[in-house]
């Protein structure tokens, strides 16, 4: 989170509460604690947490060609 804070605060005048709200609301991101659990509240985000992209679902399985055996 420290690297993220350093980068984002030089780009925007937004308040940290606003940034935390947007992180939690973003469906592609999740905030992970030091113990490995997921944060669900913007008010609980700490500087020791880290931001992770959520796993993407594969959508192209229906377009794969059948394999010949």
From TrEMBL:
This is Uncharacterized protein. It comes from Gynuella sunshinyii YC6258.
């Amino acid at each position: 989170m420290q690297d993220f804070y350093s980068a984002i605060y030089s780009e925007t005048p937004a308040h940290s509460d606003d940034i935390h709200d947007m992180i939690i609301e973003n469906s592609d991101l999740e905030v992970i604690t030091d113990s490995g659990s997921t944060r669900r509240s913007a008010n609980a985000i700490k500087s020791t947490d880290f931001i992770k992209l959520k796993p993407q679902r594969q959508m192209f399985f229906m377009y794969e060609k059948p394999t010949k055996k």
